[in-house]
Design a protein that fits this description.
mainly alpha; 3 domains; hpI Integrase, Chain A; DNA-binding; Site-specific integrase; Tyrosine_recombinase_XerCD; three-stranded antiparallel β-sheet
């Protein structure tokens, strides 16, 4: 039988032999038998034209996904790429890669996320842009590196809201840390406030990446979001946190019950945030807070960019408004009374005198 269902799935799969004897087994991406049969017939026809007429073989979306994930294996965001491609594969399945249009890709973006107890929440534009980034990368590789398609569809990011940076004061951070009831979570949060490292880098930090004598740590390029190494100077609080982990695990800095920590306890984090009297504070906002404190304390933006491992200057410009001190001398040049020709030497009205 040339089309069949596999492993209890409702989706039809193709199982046939090409003219050269190669066995072809792949999904059709549809649960409709008639559509699956049409897909099978077209695939068989295309294989014949490739073998007999020397035409360039057509590649399916599923083939591209498998090759893409194979080449991206081992990257720090591989889990996210797999999640994104699993979603798109349900939409495009065995479709001819070159037939997929820009509009179809945007229509296929996820609209809701499912959480516990079947709760659904809308997917933000920022999250949709992550999906776009993954599929854009795959299409670009298919066009420019693999030669599977003549050109990749243009997939610009969706416009996102320019929301205010979420950060908390040092007093609020102290309350939050006191509200965390688990030692390993409290220590990771403290190191986050001290270094600005992302949660994934903190959880995966190894002893081979730390030098307590020289008071520094480092993130390797394959672990960094910008794909470039990050040098991390350690202040007193960071050193104290790391020293508390000595002897707990052979390779990982942070561990739980003798095992590496693979997942953050979001529920416990949210409870601690609520107990501390803080609203809507994600763990990633720890990094925003660290950057905000730096700017408020006078750290130049170019140094902050290096400390945080950002690849673009505009990523740190969003913190610049928190410390406008360098503009004070320019603000003083615009006054009402000091530079008014007709008002020179006149006293200010009494109602304006503090």
């Amino acid at each position: 039988m040339s089309i069949r269902k596999r492993n209890g799935s409702d989706v039809w799969h193709v199982d046939l032999r090409a003219p050269g004897g190669e066995r072809i087994r792949q999904t059709t991406g549809t649960t409709n038998r008639k559509e699956a049969q049409e897909y099978h017939d077209k695939l068989k026809h295309d294989l014949w034209r490739v073998a007999k007429l020397g035409e360039k073989p057509k590649r399916t979306f599923s083939e591209a996904v498998l090759r893409f994930l194979k080449e991206k294996a081992g990257q720090s965001d591989f889990g996210n790429k797999t999640l994104h491609m699993r979603h798109f594969r349900t939409k495009f399945g065995g479709r001819d890669l070159g037939s997929i249009t820009r509009d179809e890709i945007y229509e296929a973006l996820p609209e809701v996320n499912r959480r516990k107890k079947r709760e659904t929440v809308p997917v933000s534009r920022a999250t949709k842009n992550l999906y776009l980034s993954t599929i854009r990368s795959m299409f670009n590789m298919a066009a420019n590196e693999w030669g599977w398609i003549t050109g990749a569809p243009k997939l610009p990011n969706l416009a996102t809201d320019n929301r205010r940076i979420r950060w908390i004061t040092r007093e609020e951070a102290q309350r939050l840390l006191q509200a965390i009831g688990t030692d390993w979570m409290r220590d990771i949060a403290m190191l986050g406030f001290a270094t600005g490292l992302r949660q994934s880098n903190l959880l995966a930090l190894e002893w081979s990446q730390v030098d307590l004598v020289k008071r520094r740590a480092w993130i390797h390029p394959d672990q960094a979001k910008a794909r470039r190494p990050i040098g991390v100077p350690l202040n007193d609080e960071a050193v104290d946190v790391i020293r508390r982990q000595l002897g707990k695990h052979q390779t990982r800095v942070f561990s739980r019950r003798g095992k590496p920590i693979v997942r953050w306890d979001l529920a416990q984090w949210n409870r601690a945030v609520a107990r501390a009297g803080i609203d809507h504070f994600r763990f990633h906002d720890v990094r925003h807070t660290w950057a905000s404190w730096h700017v408020q304390s006078g750290t130049p933006l170019n140094r902050l960019m290096e400390l945080g491992g950002w690849s673009k200057y505009e990523h740190v410009l969003r913190y610049a408004h928190l410390a406008p001190d360098h503009l004070a001398e320019h603000a003083a040049t615009v006054t009402i009374w000091a530079h008014s020709p007709e008002g020179a030497g006149e006293e200010r009205p009494q109602s304006l005198v503090a």
